[in-house]
């Protein structure tokens, strides 16, 4: 976009190639030709940027300075814009790499937490004997409670066999019942 004719001032918007999730970084550069251009570097500034942090902006400005100095005496706007385009693509790649590293780090941390969760007390003879004594005491307590409940529920309840062995009249009770 041409902003003025004297001095010639214009803006160029440079966008990176789409990264992951169609994320792009973008910057708008403003160039102003000086009287002795191309023997003198043009004036340039970053008018706006999108998805760039301050370090990236400073890196782009340094890149523009370096490229402008290297290309003195030649028409350089295309070269400057191409260099910024490459830098933006590098930034997108760095963002992608950083996200992948963060994802891997989270996976490693989750794996470590999982290992810690399953890492218990090492079993030694002393540990086992202590556990066994507590376990046997718990089982004995459960059996005692169960026996008390049985005693209270059916005071000396006899089985069918025991009833027949104690009272022989029960042997013929079914026959007497049928006759009646």
From TrEMBL:
Keywords: Acetylation, Phosphoprotein. CDD domains: RWD_RWDD1 (cd23816). Residues 1-91 form the RWD domain. GO terms for cellular component: cytoplasm. Residues 99-118 are annotated as: Disordered. Residues 99-117 have a biased composition (Basic and acidic residues). It comes from the Eukaryota. SUPFAM superfamilies: UBC-like (SSF54495). It holds the Pfam family DFRP_C. Belongs to the RWDD1/GIR2 family. Protects DRG2 from proteolytic degradation. PANTHER family: RWD DOMAIN-CONTAINING PROTEIN. This is RWD domain-containing protein 1. The gene is Rwdd1.
